[in-house]
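User: I'm preparing a small set of examples for a lab meeting where we compare how different chains pack in three dimensions. I only have the primary sequence for this one, and I'd like the structure in token form so I can line it up with the others. Please keep the answer compact; I'll paste it straight into my notes.
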Amino acid sequence: MKKDLVENFFVVYPKLKNDFNTKAPVNITFEIESAISSPAYASGSKVTYQSEWLAEHPEDRDIATHEMTHLVQAYNWGNIPWWITEGIADYTRDKYGISNAGWTLTPYSEGQNYDNGYRITARFLKWIEVKIKPGFVKHLDTQCRTGNYSESVWSSFTGKTLQELWTQYKADPTI
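Assistant: Understood. Below is the structure token output for the 175-residue chain.
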């Protein structure tokens, strides 16, 4: 698994950095620890993986893609909703991932909302990219990183409010 995570870094990280943030860290540290409560987390220029998760999920090498996205995002967290941060990370996992065995974006179902985060938000973002406005995710990411995020980002780039986009997505979530 360690070899797979390293390979993932050399294949995926340069693409993420090139497409989203050329100023992202160059030197990255990976740690595997047993005393963390989540499967992985990223901060600054370091990704930490939970040893138990890696042992029990050897097919989940694209956990690295998700976590490396957080390094590239480099958000200042002030007004950035968590669901956008995690949604973009799962969007990049879907788009750039090299071994997503058994992992997919969550199909739309009644009761979901755009702010559920992770795979649900990622699928909504992918739908916007495909059906409404190519380039939106990169634009959204840039606005978050530069401290210019507000809900008006959605309408200024797509011509529709966040709620209008969600309503349209719910009516026809096919990608």
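A couple of notes for your slides: The mean pLDDT is 95. The CA atoms of residues 104 and 114 lie 17 Å apart.

User: Perfect, thanks.
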